[in-house]
User: Which sequence fits this backbone?
């Protein structure tokens, strides 16, 4: 069961938070470190990271102050989910070679004590249901976020109009495809013609608005593509776009607040939605969500969406960058809109 | 059944909208007019207004543009609810002397055709359940707003902390007292020591924050009086106060957006809630409401709250101003916070 002999030959390269960023994170906010790989204690396992998930939420974790989870401490390994394999095990539930997802952090190896297996979210994954990177995308946290936000809060009904921002991103692609499967009209909002083309032609969205096309693109696009208004808005971006959508909601509309990537690197106050009183006129609801709340039902969403991946009703796109050294710059792709699909940092094959 | 002979001797004084205000309405936005009182046609009634309801929502009705109801047109009698009595009837369902509530408008008399009885919301009221002015307050639109907003959207549970702004106003007093009856801790926010004293000492709120006391009064008051955070916020005011409360909400909090009186006379853009991402962290919900949606259940709320008025568990306070000529200045009391209790324009005894 155990295979610890090789561990002493390995070095674990890591990225630690060196200082809290003001605005966009820079290389100066990170410290590269390396340490020996620890042997697992009785009941523990050692994991090798193959691919790590880079997510907009990471920016929030770098800030001080109360949030839905504590911030990453200065000097700590940067928090990140990932997928990898068991390379040493003193736990009968895990065999060397098993594929797992876990809260790896930005590092190559992770030794987890038995008592920490749950807190570290170590969980076996089945590559028959989806590829390694799909387990970071539609079958991972972004997929769970999109699925439960749309289904539980949005409660889509056939024929309703669903708008999703960050449409080509990890959460957005799940939201839009699920909404199509549930019989909705789906309008994406994304940056650039390539992303817009992809969500329409490959994912089957009814339309996609390129918010970078012109200052009035979102307003005009919503008018053109949502003739009956917006019944559900899945918001990943906040800012001006949220205001434009608020101006178009229907009576009883549901807005899922999943994130506000346009605001995460602000050095001034967050921009609040000036049009929030549209919620009053339209009896609309705006509700925030954190995916962890749905952990006991992940298996339901995974089973359903793995079926769609298999029968071709869902597709996925991952934007893969390579090597732990590229992490500081790779992360920025999320904030300048460069990433096209779920951003994944691949560490090994 | 009919008593139309006196109608020809009467003059109906009215206030009509002369122009749309920019910022606070001034006397120049109003036109005083008078006309003869029309005889009711077969099936119709003529009503004499005894007291009219002055409400923050009126400011919105004066603006052009889409809202939950059409704006008042230039030259039209200003929209207002009121209570009065039947003075002529050609409808067997209404006898001369019957007390009614109706969409009177700011005028002394109203003749309603049979086809318009429903649209004008003509409805008999029972003075055994509450006084004439209570029918404009806790048993009227403000009371219905407070009741259904709190009960349907807020869904208060015993022991939860409920915060209500505009606490001494018409909606606020209903919300706070209902929340106390449902076993909640209730913290009001109101302007001035007199209002705060009243909601605590007379209405039994647990605490009240005088937002005028100092620039930090709301922040400090919420910290002092909501040690476990805010589970339900009933928002009548918007602006900074909404942001302060957002910073204190608990997980799963419900925010009822009923109004935003702080913003109604803005000449610049509405101030959006900068702290709206607290909804995300806390899985909070913000939902708008319009009281008309609950019309088919008004009788339930009236029956329940009339019982509380009778057994002394609810009190009500109306701020009564006299005479149709005072309307332009009386309305402003709502926006400078001068009114203390439900603002009522009394026209006759």
Assistant:
């Amino acid at each position: 069961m155990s295979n610890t002999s090789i561990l002493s030959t390995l070095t674990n390269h890591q990225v630690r938070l060196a200082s809290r960023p003001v605005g966009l994170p820079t290389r100066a906010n990170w410290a590269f470190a390396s340490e020996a790989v620890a042997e697992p204690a009785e009941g523990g396992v050692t994991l090798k990271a193959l691919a790590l998930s880079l997510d907009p939420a990471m920016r929030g974790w770098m800030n001080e102050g109360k949030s839905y989870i504590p911030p990453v401490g200065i000097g700590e390994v940067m928090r990140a989910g990932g997928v990898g394999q068991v390379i040493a095990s003193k736990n009968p539930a895990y065999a060397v070679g098993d594929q797992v997802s876990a809260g790896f952090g930005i590092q190559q190896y992770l030794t987890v004590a038995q008592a920490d297996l749950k807190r570290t979210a170590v969980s076996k994954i089945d590559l028959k249901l989806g590829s390694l990177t799909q387990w970071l995308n539609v079958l991972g946290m972004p997929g769970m976020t999109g699925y439960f936000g749309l289904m539980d809060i949005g409660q889509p009904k056939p024929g309703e109009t669903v708008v999703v921002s960050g449409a080509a991103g990890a959460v957005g692609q799940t939201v839009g495809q699920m909404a199509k499967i549930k019989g909705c009209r789906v309008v994406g909002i994304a940056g650039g013609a390539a992303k817009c083309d992809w969500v329409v032609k490959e994912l089957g969205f009814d339309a996609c608005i390129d918010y970078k096309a012109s200052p009035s693109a979102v307003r005009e696009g919503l008018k053109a593509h949502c003739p009956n208004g917006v019944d559900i808005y899945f918001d990943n971006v906040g800012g001006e776009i949220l205001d434009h959508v608020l101006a178009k909601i229907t009576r009883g509309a549901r807005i899922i607040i999943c994130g506000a990537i346009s605001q995460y690197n602000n050095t001034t106050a967050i921009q609040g939605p000036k049009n929030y009183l549209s919620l009053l006129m339209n009896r609309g609801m705006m509700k925030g969500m954190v995916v962890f709340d749905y952990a006991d039902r992940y298996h339901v969403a995974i089973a359903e969406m793995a079926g769609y991946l298999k029968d071709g009703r869902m597709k996925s796109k991952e934007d893969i960058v390579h090597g732990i050294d590229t992490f500081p710059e790779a992360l920025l792709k999320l904030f300048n809109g460069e990433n096209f699909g779920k951003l994944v940092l691949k560490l090994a094959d």
